Amino acid sequence: MDDMRTELFVLTEAVESQTAYIKHLLKRDHLKSEGLRSNFPLRSENDLAQINLEITPDNKQIYVNKMISLLRQAPLSKSIKKIMIEKLIFDHNIAGVLNKKSLKTYESFFSALLEAIQLTDGTQPAEKLLRGAMGRVKNNYSKMKNKTRKTQVKDGE
User: Fold this and answer.
1) Dihedral angle sign, alpha carbons of residues 89, 90, 92, 94
2) Which of 104, 109, 122, 156 has the fewest CB atoms within 10 Å, i.e. is most exposed?
3) Model pTM?
4) If we measure between CA atoms, which residue out of 41, 22, 39, 42 comes closest to residue 30?
5) Tens of pLDDT along the chain (157 residues)?
6) CB 154 within 8 A of CB 146
C-alpha cells in the first residue's frame, strides 16, 4: 500500500511539473504572439524583408498562427489586407512577372503565408487562393486610384 502511495505521489508531482511547464510555454508563446501585433499589416518592402528575416523554423508557427487569426476575420480578399497593405499587394505577385516584384523572394514569409492560408481554407491550393485574392485586391486598388484621379481632374477643371 505504501508503494502505491509513493508512486501516486511521484506521478502527482510529475503531472504538476508538466502542467506548470505547459502553462509557461503557452504564456511565452502568447507574449511572443502579442509582440507580433505591430508587424501587421506590412507596409513596405523593408517590412517584408524584415519579417522574412525574423521568421525562422523555430518561430514560424507563431507567425502562421498570427496570420491565421488575421485571415479568419473576413474573406481572404479582404483579410489579406490585414497582413499587407493594398499598395504592397499591388506592387507584388507570386512569381514576379508583368513588372511586379515576386513574393517568392521572401521565402520564409511566403511559406508561412501559404501555410496560414491552407489552414484557414483548405478547399483549394493555397497559392491559387492567394493569387485570386491578390487579383481582387489589385482590381479594387486600381479602381480606387482611377476614381481618385478622375475626381482630381474634375476638381482641377
Assistant:
1) positive
2) 156
3) 0.74
4) 22
5) 788 888 888 888 888 888 877 777 776 665 555 555 568 999 999 999 999 999 999 999 999 999 999 999 999 999 999 999 999 999 999 999 999 999 999 999 999 999 999 999 999 999 999 999 999 999 999 888 888 877 776 666 5
6) no
